[in-house]
Amino acid sequence: MRRAQEGRTARRAGSNRHRPAPAPEAAPAEVPKGDPVVGKDAFIAYCSACHGPDAKGRPNLGKDLTASQFFGSKTDAELIEYVKRGGP
Ligand code: HEC
């Protein structure tokens, strides 16, 4: 019995799933370093339908992100919030 409980604890310690979400004010320090290869795949899968595979936008769909002042003026943490929650 005791050994089984220890086993569960050890497994939990090795997993990120049970960590509490970081506090919003701590977000900038918590932003992980991006992986451009993974990010490109995610962009193609989730964003390119409207923003285009080169992020230059599609008429009447997504904006050109390469020329976007909004995009260029935000930190990574702010952009993550924008993608997760939407704009103001
Ligand atoms: C269904 C179409 C669609 C998809 C899919 C989409 N977008 Fe957009 N996106 C838009 C439109 C339309 C706007 C312009 C909204 C506005 O001007 O109010 C926009 C605006 C933006 C902006 C703000 C640009 C600016 O200059 O204001 C960012 C950043 C952005 N999208 C990022 C993304 C990312 C990252 C993804 C993928 C996770 C994504 N979008 C997926 C349609 C889309």
Number of domains: 1
Main pleated-sheet profile: none
Element order: H for helix, E for strand: HHHHHH
Which percent bin holds the helix content?
Answer: 40-55%
The number of distinct helices, counting runs of at least 4 residues, comes to 6
Which ligands, by name, code or SMILES, are bound?
heme C
Rounded mean pLDDT is 79
Morphology: globular
Distance between the termini: 52 Å
Structural category is mainly alpha
Low-pLDDT windows of residues = none
Radius of gyration: 19 Å
Secondary structure: number of strands: 0
> How large is the share of residues in beta strands?
under 5%
Entry summary:
52% of the residues lie in helices and 0% in strands. It has 88 residues and is an all-alpha fold. The mean pLDDT is 79.
Describe this structure in words.
The protein has six helices and no strands. The protein is mainly alpha-helical and 88 residues long. It has one domain (2-85). The model has no long low-confidence stretch (mean pLDDT 79). It is globular, with a radius of gyration of 19 Å. The termini are far apart. Bound molecules: heme C. Heme C (HEC) is lined by residues 46-47, 49-51, 61-63, 65, 68, 70-71, 82-83.
